[in-house]
Design goal:
Blueprint (H helix, E strand, L loop, with lengths): L20 H11 L3 E3 L6 E3 L1 H20 L3 E2 L5 E3 H4 L3 H7 L4 E6 L2 E9 L4 H11 L8 E10 L14 E11 L2 H21 L6 E4 L11 E8 L5 E11 L1 H6 L2 E3 L5 E3 L1 E6 L3 H10 L16 E6 L5 H16 L4 E3 L7 H10 L4 E6 H6 L1 E6 L5 E5 L3 H26 L1 E3 L3 H10 L3 E6 L3 H11 L2 E6 L20 E6 L3
The protein binds one RNA strand of 73 nucleotides through α1 and α10.
Length: 487
RNA sequence: GGGGCUGUACGCUAACCUGGUAGACUACUAGCUUUGGGAGCUAGUCGUCCGAGUUCAAAUCUCGGCAGCCCCA
């Protein structure tokens, strides 16, 4: 019997992810209390779950950086205009998005100050003083901060915010070889973070000259595919060569007593990746937070009535205490809500694992564990509670990553001709892999005719098809490129 | 870069066209009651995005700003 139609549940997500992705994303962002809008357009408040996730990414990344010898520093948020203008390509790339401080109180500043869109210029001015000898190198510094890029496009929480949190690594080397050798070390760290913490898949590769970072000699990135078929850039690594060294006069006396310019790298991972994580894993019930970045990994829901309330609560508290040393666990003992209400609430907020404990479990010496990713219920004996929880959390992580990878692979297509490229982009979206001659004219033309850019040139595809022909001009192809519409 | 839509309480919405006491649901607070997939009763708290204009009178009409969303390049 069907019963009365349920009234609209206003706390829940009311649109389907695959039917209306952007509306779904907006609801997910606000209703799950992960982050919230503020009075500043494009400026977000990170609520406890959101900030915890960022801290988890930050902690893990920072530890890996430190293992490789990178050291943390901190530089001012404000950059004098004359510094920002020193490297031509760099300033041209960022100028439209720079926010300026022009006044203190009512008096105008003699020289206006940029709110950092990135910190190359303020850092490298100091680097020019600090680097003197080959003995000072390599100098591998990093800072954790926020930057402001005043995008004119409409901001989207996390994916396109005007202020975002990130790391910016800025390293200095004596030789080109040393600098270039750092690339794979850093990209491997970022691959590990996205895979083992955020549980998202990506394509690592080289950016085209057209799409590289303003001021860099070469850029590399991990690109992610969103559920709506758009590609968004994730962590990035830039080889700056000697461009900034020459603009900022960063030199050293080498062993051979010659004065030489240094070689530099820049690299970053940002809170945008949390947006990718949300978009990738969330479903029609709400968020799904991968266990390693979840503020609450396990929520315990006691199920009792007036007769057994005390015994159930006592057992629930015992379980909480037992798990507390190994996991981030929360016992929801709020008496004002029914178990059903709590199930929905914690599913909305994306807690990876739920434990149900009631009369039945008291008798059998078990708990019911429910996975957020699959909804599967399993019974776990109390004597192997901790081991069981650990296993389930790992399985959840692995399953989330596997499904992200599957989505990426299922939406990566190949095209041999331009017509094919165009048709796939139009009909199916996603990533289309095709040969490319390396000329910007072809890159521009494809963008003009299809709206797709080259997100990057995946490392693992280069060199395997050197006999290919450019998908646009038909000349001999040097590269395999990923074409996609981008966020 | 261009075009469009929308702002009323935490949220969703009524009153707007035709200016005249801001109302319902939800949430929140208290009490009772209930508790294995968003239970019920009673009472209470909270609101017209901001600024100007028109008017005796503005949530309502006009203009500007701010914010959010969508489409195209």
């Amino acid at each position: 019997m069907a019963g009365k139609p349920k009234k609209e549940k206003q706390e829940g997500i009311t649109v389907k992810k695959l039917e209306n992705f952007s509306e779904w994303y907006t609801q997910i962002i606000t209703k799950t209390e992960f982050v919230d809008y503020t009075m500043v357009s494009g400026g977000l408040a990170f609520r406890p779950d959101g900030y915890y996730a960022w801290e988890a990414v930050q902690r893990a990344t920072d530890a890996l950086f430190k293992d490789t010898g990178i050291i943390n520093v901190y530089f001012p948020m404000l950059i004098p205009e004359k510094l920002l203008n020193k490297e031509k390509e760099h300033v041209e790339g960022f100028n439209p998005e720079v926010a300026w401080v022009t006044h203190t109180g009512d008096s105008k500043l003699d020289e206006r100050l940029a709110v950092r869109p990135t910190s190359e210029t303020i850092m490298y001015d100091s680097y020019s003083k600090w680097v003197r000898s080959w003995r000072d190198l390599p100098m591998r510094f990093n800072q954790w901060n926020s930057v402001i890029r005043w995008e004119f496009k409409h901001p989207t929480p996390l994916l396109r915010s005007r202020e975002f949190l990130w790391n910016e690594g800025h390293t200095v080397f004596a030789t080109r070889e040393d600098a270039e050798a750092e690339r794979d070390v850093i990209l491997r760290i970022y691959e590990l973070i996205t895979r083992d913490y955020l549980a998202i898949a990506g394509v690592t590769g080289k950016k085209t000259d057209k799409e590289k970072f303003a001021g860099a000699e070469a850029s590399y990135s991990i690109e992610h595919l969103l559920p709506d078929g758009l590609v968004v850039q994730g962590p990035a690594f830039h080889f700056d060569g000697q461009r900034f060294a020459k603009a900022f006069d960063i030199t050293f006396i080498d062993k051979d007593e010659e004065r030489k310019y240094v070689y530099q790298n820049t690299f970053a991972i940002s809170t945008r990746n949390l947006g990718v994580m949300i978009a990738t894993h969330g479903d029609d019930k709400g968020l799904v937070i991968p266990p390693r970045i979840a503020r609450i990994q396990i929520v315990i829901i006691p199920i009792y009535n007036n007769e057994n309330r005390n015994s159930v609560m006592a057992e629930a508290e015992k379980i909480r205490a037992k798990l507390n040393s190994k996991f981030r666990v929360f016992l929801d003992d709020n008496d004002a809500y029914s178990p059903g209400w709590k199930f929905n609430e914690w599913e909305l907020k994306g807690v990876p694992l739920r434990i149900e404990i009631g009369e039945k479990e008291l008798k059998s010496g078990e708990v019911v564990a429910v996975r957020r990713d699959t909804g599967d219920k399993t019974r776990i004996k109390l004597d192997r509670l901790e081991a069981g929880m650990g296993e389930l959390l790992n399985e959840i992580h692995n399953n989330l990553y596997a499904s992200a990878k599957k989505h990426l692979e299922a939406n990566t297509h190949h095209a041999a001709t331009f017509d094919e490229l165009k048709r796939i982009l139009k009909e199916r979206g996603g990533i289309v892999q095709a040969h490319w001659c390396g000329n910007v004219q072809c890159e521009d033309k494809v963008k003009e005719l299809t709206g797709a850019k080259i997100s990057n040139m995946p490392f693992d595809k280069q060199g395997h098809g050197s006999d290919g022909k450019c998908v646009y001009c038909g000349n001999a192809s040097k590269y395999v490129a990923n074409f996609a519409k981008s966020y």
